[in-house]
Write a structure and sequence with these properties.
The protein is α+β, with helices and mostly antiparallel strands and 189 residues long. 45% of the residues lie in helices and 16% in strands. A four-stranded antiparallel beta sheet has the order 6-1-4-7, covered by helices on one side. The chain has a three-stranded antiparallel beta sheet with strand order 3-2-5, with no helix packed on it. Strand 2 and strand 3 form a beta hairpin. Helix 1 packs antiparallel against helix 2 and helix 3 packs across helix 5. 23% of the residues are buried.
Length: 189
């Protein structure tokens, strides 16, 4: 489960740690946690299937993880969740087709990939991309160029190139300085 703050004025604490809207929380399995909210807060609680694997989000079961979100990744994830909820409320019939549902799911997963991958406190002088990452990004670019209007699903790309989703996303971030989701949109623009 991911708990995503949906307002800018969030105030809460968890196990004595003060939280504000910069943080998001991830929980895998069971974990004893205690939250105190001195005011009304708005969150999106997004539950994922236990079958969801290979995204590199969680390393251990029964873990509560509190992390500062990259502001751009957080804003994008929050806006995407709001857009999905607004559309579902106003036009529920749009979600009836498998293709639309798969597209929305993929977009949401990519947005959360960005939340988990991008670290606003990371060292800007981190080691540069490896030759393997450069080759993988070139394969992605060639794949997108071959059929630029076809929908692209991260899991399919990872399968195509024989790597994990985490490896795929990490390579794009190292080489292009942006997430895979941002890269896909830039290639199509």
């Amino acid at each position: 489960m991911v708990i995503l703050p949906m307002t800018d004025d969030l105030r809460a604490s968890s196990s004595g740690m003060d939280l504000d809207s910069r943080f998001f929380i991830a929980l895998r399995g069971n974990h004893h946690c205690h939250f105190v909210e001195p005011q009304i807060n708005h969150h999106a609680l997004i539950m994922f299937s236990p079958a969801l694997r290979d995204r590199g989000w969680f390393d251990r079961a029964d873990t509560l993880w509190v992390r500062i979100a990259d502001p751009a990744a957080h804003l994008y994830a929050r806006q995407l969740v709001l857009d999905i909820l607004r559309t579902a409320s106003a036009e529920p019939h749009r979600f009836e087709t498998t293709e639309v549902a798969a597209h929305l799911q993929e977009g949401l997963l990519l947005a959360f990939d960005d939340l988990f991958r991008l670290n606003p406190l990371s060292d800007p002088h981190a080691p540069s991309a490896s030759a393997r990452s450069v080759r993988l990004v070139q394969q992605i670019d060639d794949y997108i160029a071959a059929d630029p209007i076809a929908p692209i699903y991260t899991a399919n790309l990872a399968d195509e190139f024989g790597v994990s989703i985490r490896t795929l996303g990490g390579a794009v971030t190292k080489v292009r300085g942006m997430s895979l989701h941002q890269r896909q949109h830039k290639c199509r623009a």
